[in-house]
Amino acid sequence: MRALDGIDLTIREGETLGLVGESGCGKSTLGRVVLRLLPATAGSVTFEGRNVLAASEKEMKAFRRDMQIVFQNPYASLDPRMTIRQIVQEPLEVHQTARGSDLRDRVLNLLDLVGLAKEMADRYPHEFSGGQRQRVGIARALALRPKLIVADEPVSALDVSVQAQILNLLIQLKSEFKLTYLFIAHNLDVVRYISDRIAVMYLGRIVELGECDQVYNQPLHPYSKALISAAPVPDPDFDRSNRMLLPAICPVLQTLRRVVASTPAVRWRETNARSMIQRFGRSLRRTSLLVTLPKSCLHHRNRHNHYCPKSCLCRGNRHNHLLKDCVAFRPDQAFQQRCRTKALAVLFI
Prior knowledge:
By secondary structure, this protein is an alpha/beta fold. Helix content is 36%, strand content 15%.
């Protein structure tokens, strides 16, 4: 079992990348691995051309200035024995970026920036509401003027009205400090409001990635469709009978089986991404869906001794694979970097 499996993700400078998915799919783990708060067993995390996972302890301290996190639980992420002043000034003291009166002034300016009165600086966390505590967490993350902030479900534990305040604050700070966000959340409306692009995560994999409106209005992957259809609609007259439920068997494989069974002329090829582009380059512009299949499901060979996905897909039973093994790509994305050497099934519509 892998918490993260085959993640290939790029966050552009100055954008907000929203990461959505069900509980336990690996969203928070991904955010912590990016910051090296959790060790990675393989792979690399590149920040401004440097590998974070290969950095020494001294180099990692420099990385910390540019990469910060806002934790999910505002009640557990603040030390109850420290005042708000001590919490916010701790990063400045560790990195020795301010001292004396300059340190005091910067702490008060940070509190004012996130909408907290200066008189609150000497209070303890238990004297604040959840929204105020989250503002303290944001002030602490901003103390070192980072370039990247991982916001790990920063509004999930807050009331709806307070959520709006925190989201507007994050948008304002992004514009003011030219920040880049990896925004992790469950609430699809929240992610749509704040994000430029959205990545959908399922069982440790990114199953769909695209512009915000694209993913919401024209989702490709069955899990994305089910996730969006499950979002509550504040309309009592809304027809909820069309809600999509995921069956135990992967819907993509079910569709492929039906296509194969009804259309014997469908052609399958086992190929890597580069040769696929060379063979089908022009046709891919008309492709509505590309599906990658793991090689483990292609262990049947035909009479020409070639792998035959058709025979595997039509048999079912023990050859069924989890939804995470199928990844949907839009033709305009650089899927050749993601598919690697997996076998590819192409549907032309």
